[in-house]
Write a structure and sequence with these properties.
This protein is mostly helical. It is about 80% helix and about 0% strand. It has 12 helices and no strands. Helix 3 runs parallel beside helix 9 and helix 8 runs antiparallel to helix 11.
Length: about 220
Amino acid sequence: MDLLPLYLSLKLAAVSTVVLIAAAAPLSYFLVFFRMPGKSFVEALINLPIVLPPTVLGFYLLVVMGPKGGVGQAWGSVFGSTLLFTFTGIVVASIVYSLPFAVAPMKSAFLRIDPRLVENAQVLGLTPTAIFLRVVLPNSLAGIAASAILVFLHTIGEFGVILMVGGSIPGETKVASIAIYEAVEALRYRDAWLMSLALVPVSYLFLLLVNRLTPEVRRGA
Protein backbone atom coordinates (compact mmCIF):
# COMPACT_ATOMS: atom_id res chain seq x y z
CA MET A 1 0.00 0.00 0.00
CA ASP A 2 1.27 3.45 -0.93
CA LEU A 3 1.49 5.52 2.26
CA LEU A 4 2.10 8.84 0.50
CA PRO A 5 -1.64 9.75 0.26
CA LEU A 6 -1.97 9.17 4.01
CA TYR A 7 1.03 11.41 4.65
CA LEU A 8 -0.43 14.13 2.41
CA SER A 9 -3.79 13.91 4.24
CA LEU A 10 -2.10 14.31 7.63
CA LYS A 11 0.08 17.14 6.32
CA LEU A 12 -2.93 18.91 4.83
CA ALA A 13 -4.91 18.48 8.05
CA ALA A 14 -2.04 19.77 10.20
CA VAL A 15 -1.38 22.87 8.08
CA SER A 16 -5.09 23.68 7.70
CA THR A 17 -5.68 23.27 11.43
CA VAL A 18 -2.86 25.62 12.42
CA VAL A 19 -3.98 28.30 9.97
CA LEU A 20 -7.67 27.96 10.83
CA ILE A 21 -7.19 28.08 14.59
CA ALA A 22 -5.06 31.21 14.22
CA ALA A 23 -7.71 32.81 11.98
CA ALA A 24 -10.87 31.53 13.70
CA ALA A 25 -9.93 32.66 17.22
CA PRO A 26 -9.93 36.44 16.55
CA LEU A 27 -12.85 36.07 14.12
CA SER A 28 -14.94 34.25 16.76
CA TYR A 29 -13.94 36.85 19.36
CA PHE A 30 -15.16 39.61 17.05
CA LEU A 31 -18.45 37.82 16.34
CA VAL A 32 -19.18 37.22 20.03
CA PHE A 33 -18.03 40.41 21.71
CA PHE A 34 -18.50 43.15 19.12
CA ARG A 35 -21.65 44.61 17.62
CA MET A 36 -21.89 45.63 14.01
CA PRO A 37 -24.67 46.00 11.44
CA GLY A 38 -25.03 43.01 9.18
CA LYS A 39 -23.19 40.61 11.48
CA SER A 40 -25.78 37.92 10.78
CA PHE A 41 -24.90 38.12 7.07
CA VAL A 42 -21.22 37.61 7.90
CA GLU A 43 -22.03 34.57 10.04
CA ALA A 44 -24.24 33.14 7.30
CA LEU A 45 -21.40 33.56 4.81
CA ILE A 46 -18.98 31.78 7.15
CA ASN A 47 -21.41 28.88 7.58
CA LEU A 48 -22.24 28.60 3.88
CA PRO A 49 -19.77 25.73 3.25
CA ILE A 50 -21.77 23.55 5.67
CA VAL A 51 -24.87 23.57 3.47
CA LEU A 52 -23.32 23.87 0.01
CA PRO A 53 -22.52 20.61 -1.81
CA PRO A 54 -18.72 20.18 -1.80
CA THR A 55 -18.65 20.07 -5.60
CA VAL A 56 -20.47 23.41 -5.80
CA LEU A 57 -18.03 25.05 -3.40
CA GLY A 58 -15.18 23.35 -5.24
CA PHE A 59 -16.40 24.71 -8.58
CA TYR A 60 -16.53 28.29 -7.29
CA LEU A 61 -13.07 27.91 -5.76
CA LEU A 62 -11.86 26.50 -9.07
CA VAL A 63 -13.10 29.62 -10.84
CA VAL A 64 -11.78 32.09 -8.27
CA MET A 65 -8.40 30.37 -7.90
CA GLY A 66 -7.96 29.77 -11.63
CA PRO A 67 -5.67 31.82 -13.91
CA LYS A 68 -8.54 34.18 -14.78
CA GLY A 69 -9.94 34.39 -11.23
CA GLY A 70 -9.10 37.20 -8.83
CA VAL A 71 -7.25 35.04 -6.32
CA GLY A 72 -5.47 33.08 -9.05
CA GLN A 73 -4.32 36.22 -10.84
CA ALA A 74 -3.07 37.80 -7.61
CA TRP A 75 -1.21 34.63 -6.69
CA GLY A 76 0.35 34.39 -10.15
CA SER A 77 1.50 38.02 -10.13
CA VAL A 78 3.19 37.61 -6.74
CA PHE A 79 4.61 34.08 -6.97
CA GLY A 80 4.69 33.51 -10.72
CA SER A 81 2.93 30.15 -10.47
CA THR A 82 -0.56 28.70 -10.56
CA LEU A 83 -2.54 27.97 -7.43
CA LEU A 84 -4.68 25.18 -8.82
CA PHE A 85 -3.54 21.56 -8.67
CA THR A 86 -0.90 22.28 -6.03
CA PHE A 87 -0.63 21.45 -2.35
CA THR A 88 -0.96 25.14 -1.50
CA GLY A 89 -4.16 25.25 -3.53
CA ILE A 90 -5.78 22.40 -1.62
CA VAL A 91 -4.72 24.06 1.64
CA VAL A 92 -6.58 27.22 0.61
CA ALA A 93 -9.63 25.19 -0.41
CA SER A 94 -9.52 23.25 2.85
CA ILE A 95 -9.36 26.45 4.89
CA VAL A 96 -12.45 27.85 3.17
CA TYR A 97 -14.33 24.54 3.48
CA SER A 98 -13.48 23.94 7.16
CA LEU A 99 -13.79 27.53 8.45
CA PRO A 100 -17.27 27.04 9.98
CA PHE A 101 -16.07 23.90 11.79
CA ALA A 102 -13.36 26.01 13.43
CA VAL A 103 -15.56 28.99 14.30
CA ALA A 104 -18.58 27.19 15.79
CA PRO A 105 -16.83 25.48 18.76
CA MET A 106 -14.87 28.64 19.53
CA LYS A 107 -17.98 30.79 19.54
CA SER A 108 -19.65 28.36 21.93
CA ALA A 109 -16.62 28.44 24.22
CA PHE A 110 -16.42 32.24 24.17
CA LEU A 111 -20.14 32.53 24.94
CA ARG A 112 -19.64 30.37 28.06
CA ILE A 113 -17.12 32.81 29.54
CA ASP A 114 -18.44 34.65 32.59
CA PRO A 115 -19.28 38.17 31.31
CA ARG A 116 -18.00 39.62 34.57
CA LEU A 117 -14.46 38.60 33.64
CA VAL A 118 -14.63 40.65 30.46
CA GLU A 119 -16.35 43.55 32.22
CA ASN A 120 -13.69 43.62 34.95
CA ALA A 121 -10.96 43.62 32.32
CA GLN A 122 -12.62 46.56 30.58
CA VAL A 123 -12.90 48.45 33.88
CA LEU A 124 -9.18 47.87 34.47
CA GLY A 125 -8.50 49.52 31.13
CA LEU A 126 -7.39 46.52 29.10
CA THR A 127 -7.57 46.94 25.34
CA PRO A 128 -9.71 44.54 23.26
CA THR A 129 -6.52 42.79 22.13
CA ALA A 130 -5.33 42.36 25.70
CA ILE A 131 -8.75 41.03 26.76
CA PHE A 132 -8.62 38.54 23.93
CA LEU A 133 -5.12 37.32 24.79
CA ARG A 134 -5.28 37.46 28.60
CA VAL A 135 -8.92 36.70 29.39
CA VAL A 136 -10.78 35.05 26.52
CA LEU A 137 -8.17 32.59 25.23
CA PRO A 138 -7.01 31.23 28.61
CA ASN A 139 -10.64 30.57 29.59
CA SER A 140 -11.50 28.83 26.31
CA LEU A 141 -8.85 26.14 25.97
CA ALA A 142 -11.37 23.30 25.80
CA GLY A 143 -13.26 25.05 23.02
CA ILE A 144 -10.06 25.72 21.11
CA ALA A 145 -9.09 22.05 21.44
CA ALA A 146 -12.54 21.01 20.23
CA SER A 147 -12.19 23.35 17.27
CA ALA A 148 -8.77 21.95 16.41
CA ILE A 149 -9.90 18.33 16.55
CA LEU A 150 -12.99 19.03 14.47
CA VAL A 151 -11.01 20.84 11.79
CA PHE A 152 -8.27 18.19 11.74
CA LEU A 153 -10.63 15.25 11.34
CA HIS A 154 -12.89 17.11 8.91
CA THR A 155 -9.89 17.92 6.71
CA ILE A 156 -8.75 14.30 6.66
CA GLY A 157 -12.14 13.29 5.28
CA GLU A 158 -12.40 16.00 2.60
CA PHE A 159 -12.96 14.72 -0.92
CA GLY A 160 -15.12 16.75 -3.32
CA VAL A 161 -13.55 20.17 -2.75
CA ILE A 162 -10.02 18.77 -2.85
CA LEU A 163 -10.71 16.80 -6.04
CA MET A 164 -12.15 19.86 -7.82
CA VAL A 165 -9.30 22.19 -6.88
CA GLY A 166 -6.35 19.81 -6.72
CA GLY A 167 -7.20 16.86 -8.91
CA SER A 168 -5.25 13.69 -8.20
CA ILE A 169 -1.54 14.39 -8.58
CA PRO A 170 0.60 11.77 -6.77
CA GLY A 171 2.80 13.32 -4.12
CA GLU A 172 1.11 16.72 -4.48
CA THR A 173 -2.70 16.61 -4.18
CA LYS A 174 -3.62 12.91 -4.10
CA VAL A 175 -4.77 12.62 -0.49
CA ALA A 176 -6.10 9.49 1.19
CA SER A 177 -9.78 10.06 0.40
CA ILE A 178 -9.01 10.41 -3.32
CA ALA A 179 -6.68 7.41 -3.25
CA ILE A 180 -9.41 5.29 -1.63
CA TYR A 181 -11.92 6.38 -4.28
CA GLU A 182 -9.53 5.56 -7.10
CA ALA A 183 -8.67 2.18 -5.56
CA VAL A 184 -12.35 1.24 -5.38
CA GLU A 185 -12.90 2.48 -8.93
CA ALA A 186 -10.03 0.27 -10.12
CA LEU A 187 -11.39 -2.70 -8.11
CA ARG A 188 -8.32 -2.67 -5.85
CA TYR A 189 -10.40 -3.34 -2.78
CA ARG A 190 -7.46 -4.51 -0.69
CA ASP A 191 -5.71 -1.15 -1.05
CA ALA A 192 -8.95 0.70 -0.32
CA TRP A 193 -9.57 -1.46 2.74
CA LEU A 194 -6.06 -0.99 4.16
CA MET A 195 -6.04 2.76 3.63
CA SER A 196 -9.52 3.15 5.11
CA LEU A 197 -8.49 1.04 8.07
CA ALA A 198 -5.41 3.19 8.63
CA LEU A 199 -7.55 6.31 9.06
CA VAL A 200 -9.64 4.83 11.88
CA PRO A 201 -6.90 4.52 14.55
CA VAL A 202 -5.45 7.90 13.53
CA SER A 203 -8.81 9.58 14.14
CA TYR A 204 -9.46 7.63 17.32
CA LEU A 205 -6.02 8.28 18.82
CA PHE A 206 -6.34 11.98 18.07
CA LEU A 207 -9.64 12.08 19.93
CA LEU A 208 -8.04 10.32 22.91
CA LEU A 209 -5.16 12.79 22.88
CA VAL A 210 -7.48 15.79 22.95
CA ASN A 211 -9.52 14.27 25.79
CA ARG A 212 -6.35 13.77 27.85
CA LEU A 213 -5.09 17.28 27.17
CA THR A 214 -8.37 19.05 28.01
CA PRO A 215 -9.40 18.47 31.65
CA GLU A 216 -12.82 20.05 31.09
CA VAL A 217 -13.68 17.53 28.37
CA ARG A 218 -12.34 14.66 30.46
CA ARG A 219 -14.41 15.64 33.53
CA GLY A 220 -17.53 15.82 31.36
CA ALA A 221 -16.98 12.30 30.02
